[in-house]
Specification:
The protein is α/β, with parallel strands linked by helices. Helix content is 39%, strand content 17%. It holds the Pfam family NAD_binding_10.
């Protein structure tokens, strides 16, 4: 039995990773900002972080936020992992962090480099956007009288459970460095994803494609966040929507 610490272990991905590792009989410690007994803010570090890592053999680092602080959090985690003698640090990143000049992506890339230079055994997996994230975006946009989507942009959403399965497997294997990306099974226009959402929920909105400006938009239009050669996921966006909404909504 392996002792594994999962950061962000109460989040969308971390919770599933935790469940899979525990189902295999491993001792899993869940680290999050508010959940005892390992309630730690990685951006602050401290003695509680050292206590959470004591005796851990592997760390799966899922904690992340677009609001900033990921690099500081990683620095604290890596330093504490070194002190604890952790043998394997597994990190989940995003496809395109080296190609799309988005602030959050730049931070994720910086953390990748910190992990690589940590002196620990390490594994990094990049995945495309989760179905949950695409849905959250579309739900926010659908509050408007029309549903605006970025013109000329495609996406490749992946089922979060598949990413969790892959991460759990990597955590139980030897450090492997940068492993092949994990992308969803289909590369879809944002218009088609929006239309699928509207069908699933029974909502009525005109989908309006809006061209945007800037380097970040250009990188998304160029497909910097896609991995066509690694479209290995199985679950489709429609299947995900079917589980969330069943036969669809009643309009609105």
């Amino acid at each position: 039995m392996t002792t594994i610490l999962v950061t962000g272990g109460t989040g969308t991905l971390g919770r599933l990773v935790t469940e899979r590792l525990r189902a295999d009989g491993h001792e899993v410690r869940v680290l999050s900002r508010r959940t005892p007994p390992y309630a730690v803010d990685l951006r602050e570090g401290g003695a509680q972080l050292d206590a959470a890592l004591a005796g851990a053999e592997t760390v799966v680092h899922c904690a992340s936020t677009p609001r900033g602080g990921d690099e500081t959090a990683a620095e604290h985690l890596i330093a504490a992992a070194r002190r604890a003698g952790v043998g394997h640090l597994v990190y989940i990143s995003i496809v395109g962090v080296d190609r799309v000049p988005l602030g959050y992506y730049t931070s994720k890339l910086a953390v990748e480099r910190l992990v690589e230079a940590s002196g620990l055994g390490w594994t990094t997996l990049r995945a495309t956007q989760f179905h949950d994230l695409v849905l959250t975006l579309l739900e926010g946009l659908a509050k408007l009288p029309v549903l605006p989507v970025p013109a000329g942009v495609w996406d490749q959403p992946v089922e979060v459970a598949e990413v969790a399965d892959r991460l759990a497997g990597l955590a139980l294997a030897a450090p492997a460095g940068r492993v092949p990306d994990l992308g969803g099974p289909e590369i879809r226009t944002f218009r088609s994803l929006a239309e699928a959402y509207l069908r699933a929920t029974g909502r009525r909105r005109r989908v309006l494609e809006i061209p945007l400006l800037g380097r970040t938009y250009g990188a998304f239009r160029a497909g910097g966040h896609l991995t066509a050669e690694r479209a290995v996921g199985k679950g489709t966006f429609e299947e995900y929507l079917g589980r969330r909404f069943g036969g669809g909504g009643s309009g609105g």
